[in-house]
Amino acid sequence: MTRAAAVATRPPAVAGRPLAALLAVLFLVLAGLFSAPGTAAAQPAATVPAPAASGPLRLELAGLTPRVVTSDSPSTVTVTGTLRNTGDRPVDDLEVRLQRGEALRTDGDVRDALAGDGRVDAATPAFTPLPGTLAPGGSLPVELTVPLRGAPTDGLALAQPGVYEVLVNVNGVPRDGLRARVAAARLLLPVLSLPAGPGPADVPVDPPKPGGPAGVTVLYPLVDSPHRLPAVPGEQTLLTDDDLARSLAPDGRLGGLLTAFGKEAPSGSAVRGATCLAVDPDLVATAAAMRQGYAVRGPDGTVPGTGAEVAGTWLDTLSAAARGGCVVALPFADADLVALARGKLTDLTGPAVADGRAVVAEILGTPVLDATTWPSGGVLDEAALAGVAAAGTRTVVLDADAVAGGEAGETGGAVPVTVGPTSLVAVLTDTLLTRATAAPDTPASMGGGTATTVSAAATSPPLATQDAAATLVFRALARQGQPVSGGPPIVLAPPHVWNTDETGARALLATVDLLLDSGRLRARGLADVVSAGPTTPGPARQAADPLQAGSRDIPPTVLESVREMRADVLDLRSAAVPETGVGASVDATFTPLLQAVLRPASATWHGRPDLATAAATAAAARIEELRESIRVLPPPSPYSLGTTDAPLLLTVANGLPVTMEVRLSISSTTGLRVAPIPPQRIPPLGRRQVQVSAEVVRSGQFSVEATVHSPAGRALGPPSRLQVRSTAYGTITVWLTGSAAVLLVVLAAYRVVRRIRGEPSPRDRTGPSVGPPATLGPPVPEPPTSDSRTVERDPPPPVATNPPAPVPEPPTTPLGTPRDPEPPTRPVPARRP
After folding, report:
1. Structural domains of the chain, count
2. Among 625, 653, 673, where does a domain finish?
3. How are beta strands 660-666 and 639-641 bridged, if at all?
4. How far is C-alpha 13 from the chain's CA centre?
5. Is 255 within 8 Å of 224 (Cβ atoms)?
6. Helices 609-628 & 556-573 angle (0-180, nearest 10)
7. What does the alpha-carbon distance between residue 794 and residue 780 come to, in Å, rounded to a whole number?
8. Positive or negative, the Cα torsion across 522, 527, 528, 533?
9. Residue 231, SS3?
10. Calculated CA dihedral for residues 489, 494, 495, 499, nearest 10 degrees
11. pLDDT in tens, 377-423
12. Which of 750, 646, 763, 766 is nearest to 695 (CA)?
């Protein structure tokens, strides 16, 4: 007996006897452990929960044929994908099957199926073995084909049209474990009519009601996360990365979406009449700048971009596809309007909404839907709604659950909404369809087993629209036969950043085309819904307060950075001077900068706060570079001033393409006094020399700082340090020198007066001078000292016999000159004959 068969064939009588049941279970488990390994594959059994393994396998679906079952479809359905071992143990005895649940009948059934909570055991055909053992890190291709009709043990056994949840179920035996479900993937399969095949006869659905089909409106978003850094006219376009070039390529996401639109919704087709392109103004503006050449600023420096040709081709294709059809402009950079309102930044709502329409209309060369705004997620609170109303919006596209006072299960239509004294029209989108086009946040757990069920919409871009197509079929079948004049249209609104590719987008548009051709739906464009006004009777409603939207996903630090950048740009703009024919205009220079501060607040960063912070940091650094381009250039050498009132020549540079009127300030020091400097106008992308009157108050070398300010007094560029060398006497030096001269004159005059009066000098009053005699004769012998030692001296000169003449008085020495004391005179003895 095999392990799977032993667990599946437990005797029912054991359940009433606990001890006997325990022994029986132990016996059966031991028997399974010692059974032959090949027996389990010979008798596959149903899935049984098993102890948790270290890591399950992962099933990634890649294809489903057919996507919508009709009478013209093949009699079989085929799924393809890849099975990967993400655990740390090999898995043996792999097998796979496709099973389904009952037809979905209510909105609740569809929600449960989208969440992975529905039952999928209405038809459970036999497992199909997969060859080999799947080692850790390995992968295995999977392809499974089963009949659409027939017995439940052989295929899906479809008996009537409808929408069914199907499950791709993979069982296996992890090494040292028990057989269990090791991977699973779920999706919805729409069935409009049954193909030929064995099985019970086609059971028709409810008979159609009298009247025409329901209208359908499809919004087709073209949005990407921001990549561009702030710039001014004339500068080279700078991107943070080159990911946008890869997305715009024919095999990229945006390139695939545009290709699918061109193939499945050509001009003049019914699908084109039902579809409205929703375009991000920042995306088309960036593509238009890229085609002129751009550079990428990365961590290793700035390198040339590689997508100029791709961006130009994509933009030309979009312009051709938009011509003559419906186009609605999204907020610039898909800004989160709720987050801006909660951050007290509603003054940025105008540039985000109104300027966005002008950008799209100018670049694509086609009119856009006037005064219409589709916010991210279809959500606006009261403050955000007031902001878009102030920006001139008269129609907003909102999720049906984001408007209070409506009935459950609203699928579309237009209703009046009020905010204060202002009344607007809200076009409601189908909440169930929006949920079907969005990938689920987390996979659903399956019954305590080792595997989790993943959604094909979350793991496979080609199948990302399968649930949305099936849900649209569900709506069409439910609304079939409704009178044309009654009932609102079905509005399909995918997420702004739509995670699908060309294959997925074509499958959804093909489903819309199939429903239109079969008469189950009729095309109704968004412009028609807007112009018709409210379609649902009743009083005006109010926007619901979305507790989980807005500031939850935009970090407060990012909103604070947006606030500071806005203040920097507005301060810079206050210094701009409009001059006709000189440089760029003020609006052309600063409007893109105000739009650029919206990029960190883009709703595309929801769930990725680290990327939002990085975008805010990069944008703030770039705006600071633009402010610093207006500065005083430091001179190549120190200023040398030779006079006390010599002027300083300063050179002010302007790196912006518009004339700027700025103010200069020079820091005061103890060595320099500067006269007030009048405002200076600096030409676009030019320089101007400014002569500053200065007064030197001391000599020597010292430094001062020169700074450029906006009219509000905020510094623009960084301070420039100037070295000043003064060779002129300052006022303090001149005063000290003059005082010393006056003192010398006074002293000299005082001495002359004393001489005239005959007053003795201080030297005469204090005795003879003690300095040496100032004589020209021979030296006078020194007086004897008290020392008894004999001092040898030069022999005295010959002395005459005549009596000695009186010695004359030595001349007077200058005042203050010390003299040695005069030696006493001795009588000279007479020489004998």
Report:
1. 4
2. 625
3. unpaired
4. 65
5. no
6. 20
7. 11
8. positive
9. coil
10. 180
11. 999 988 999 999 999 999 999 999 888 876 766 778 889 999 888 88
12. 646
Dihedral angle computed from the Cα positions of residues 282, 286, 288 and 291, in that order, rounded to the nearest 10 degrees: -170
Q: Do 671 and 554 belong together in one domain? A: no
Residue 9 counted as domain residue: yes
Which two three-digit tokens encode residue 324?
């003559």
Give domain status of residue 214, yes or no.
Answer: no
pLDDT of 668 over the 50 cut? yes
Looking at residue 3, what DSSP letter applies? H
User: Are residues 565 and 644 both part of a single domain?
Assistant: no
Q: Is 134 within the bounds of a domain? A: yes
**CA atoms of 429 and 494, how far apart (whole Å):** 10
> Whole-structure pTM over 0.70, yes or no?
yes
Residue with tokens 């993979």: 170
Has residue 481 got a pLDDT over 60?
no
Q: For residue 204, give every residue at least 6 positions away whose Cβ sits within 8 Å of its Cβ, in sequence order, or none.
A: 160, 161
Q: Which domain holds residue 556?
A: 550-625
Report how far apart, in Å, the C-alpha atoms of 284 and of each of 228, 265, 599 are. 11, 21, 14
**Residue 727: its pLDDT value, please?**
64
- CB count, 10 Å around CB of 78? 14
Kindly state whether residues 134 and 182 are assigned to the same domain: yes
Q: Give me the pLDDT at residue 339, please.
A: 92
Residues above pLDDT 90, as percent of the chain? 55
Look up residue 754 and give its DSSP letter: H
253/557 Cα distance (integer angstroms): 31
Identify the helix (H) or strand (E) that includes residue 301. strand 301-304
Strands 326-329 and 162-174: unpaired
Mark whether 28 and 149 lie in a shared domain. no
By CB atoms closer than 10 A (0-12, 13-18, 19+), residue 283 is buried
How much is the pLDDT for 440? Answer: 65
Question: What are the φ/ψ torsions at residue 674 (nearest 5 degrees)?
Answer: -115, 135
Question: At CA 292, angle to CA 286 and CA 293, rounded to 5?
Answer: 90
Same domain for 664 and 609? Answer: no
pLDDT one-digit tens code per residue, 669-720: 666 777 788 999 999 999 999 888 877 766 667 777 889 999 999 999 888 8
The answer to whether 403 and 428 have CB atoms below 8 angstroms apart is yes
Indicate if 75 and 172 belong to the same structural domain: yes
pLDDT tens per residue across span 415-440: 999 988 888 999 999 999 999 998 66
Give the number of other Cβ atoms within 10 Å of residue 245's Cβ: 23
276 belongs to a structural domain:
no
Neighbouring-strand partners of residue 228: 239
Quick one: tokens of 525? 């464009």
